[in-house]
Amino acid sequence: MGVSLIFRIAAVGILVSVICQILKHSGREEQAFLTSLAGLVLVLFWMIPYIYQLFETMKELFAL
Question: Organism's domain of life (predicted)?
């Protein structure tokens, strides 16, 4: 996991929070919720390979 992934996650977080604030102030709470949910799903998809690698490493570590 590199620094670029951390910066991408931070950029998505900042962008989603700005968009959510704009949508909430304009009275569109449902779209703000869906925007935050989409940002969460995007970041989780980025993290799936690293989570898989973690579980594979743990399986190799505790294999008899």
Answer: Bacteria
Q: What is the pLDDT along the chain (64 residues), one digit of tens a residue?
A: 689 999 999 999 999 999 999 999 999 999 999 999 999 999 999 999 999 999 999 999 998 6
Round to whole Å and give the CA distance between 17 and 24: 10
pTM (predicted TM-score): 0.79
Q: How far apart are CA 32 and CA 16, in angstroms?
A: 9
What is the spatial distance between Cα 47 and Cα 53, in angstroms, rounded to a whole number?
Answer: 10
Token pair for 44: 């989780």
